[in-house]
Amino acid sequence: IFDRWIRLSKSPKQAAQNLLNHGTTTNDLYKVLRKRNMNLETIRPIWRDLGLTEYQLRAARHAASAL
C-alpha cells in the first residue's frame, strides 16, 4: 500500500500518514519504512513530522530487532 501511494505522487510522509490513518501500528510503520531501505536518518524526520515521539521510534526499533 505504501508503494502504491508513493506511485500516486504522495510524499513518504503523506504515505506514512495514510498508513497510520488506516490503522497501521507504529511498529508496523517502522517495518514498512525499513523495508524501503530507509535508514534511521531518513526515518527520523518523517517520524517527527507525523507527530510521533522518539520514544515510539525507539520502541518500534526494539520490537523490529527482537524478531
Automatic annotation (TrEMBL):
It comes from the Eukaryota. This is RxLR effector protein. It comes from Phytophthora nicotianae (Potato buckeye rot agent). The lineage of its organism: Eukaryota, Sar, Stramenopiles, Oomycota, Peronosporomycetes.
